[in-house]
Amino acid sequence: MSAGSVAVVVPEDIAVPSWDLYELSLPCTVFGKPQPDLADPWYELRLCGTGQADPGGLAVPGLALRTPYGLDDLVGADTVIVPSVPDACVEDGAPLPPALVSALRDAYDAGARMVSLCTGAFALAEAGLLDGRRATAHWMHTAQLAERYPKVQVDDSVLYVDDGDVLTSAGLTAGLDLCLHLVRRDLGAHVANQLARRMVVPAHRPGGQAQFVDLSVPATDDDGMAPVLEWARANLDQPLTVEDLARRAAMSPRTFYRRLQGATGLTPLQWLLNQRLSLAQGLLESTDLPIEKVGELSGLGTANNLRHHFLKQVGVSPSDYRRAFPRTA
């Protein structure tokens, strides 16, 4: 087992939101601080700038970084990590720096393990490194990733994807999950577990990012549907059928089905299930009610039925979800 060198791409010359510094800090924390009692040698960390300015200084909002490394230093690294790309490249379709895309391809061809955190997946996808592969990103951006790069098999339900020599993670703390996974792969479970303890984080979190997705109904411009949907939300603990909702809306079941699907993109049964799961999530987050009572109040029925739908749709059990979102006073 070997640690090796880790090159982290630091975007510059184009605006990087300050919150993306979190993703940048994750590999610096995991791979940049020597842990001689766990493994010696530890990783060799390189921060590699992407701009054309003097590589001795990186202009990052909120701080200044100094590094002797540029894009040429990606080639020869054992692992290359792209923590994020600028918002303009994600939201507005602004082009990524061609030099970065080319350097990522060169690093991969030279045998580097390629890793993205959050929106860094857009850079790997632009370089063609995700074509035909399963990959993920923050769930808020996976639809854009899938639309822009149709050859990528985007999975928005997982915390990270390990596809051997190319790995991708969801956003923010999921990047830490992937960094610890890399340590586990390189240096073994004991080292990864001890490092996680020092960082006061779980060595491995259950479930996927689906547990963090808002399951509430999408916004709709169909004002005629609003009253019946509000009534349904207030009566989720009751058995509700399409016929019940259609009757309440003074429509035929067929018309109601068409109108609701047009307004929300969901069938009536899918919409009801999402509302019940959303209510159950809220109850698990904000109360100490037994699982059986949460199932009853949300309309999901028995505790077993609640667990079934939670595992299928959210990716974790109700108990694990409650532990992930401890109730505050």
Automatic annotation (TrEMBL):
Signal peptide: none annotated. The keyword Transcription regulation applies. Keywords: DNA-binding, Transcription, Transcription regulation. It holds the Pfam family HTH_18. Residues 226-324 form the HTH araC/xylS-type domain. The keyword Transcription applies. Gene3D superfamilies: 3.40.50.880, Homeodomain-like. One of its GO terms (molecular function) is DNA-binding transcription factor activity. InterPro entries: Class_I_gatase-like (IPR029062), DJ-1/PfpI (IPR002818), Homeodomain-like_sf (IPR009057), HTH_AraC (IPR018060), HTH_AraC-typ_CS (IPR018062), INH-QAR (IPR052158). It comes from the Bacteria. This is Transcriptional regulator GlxA family with amidase domain.
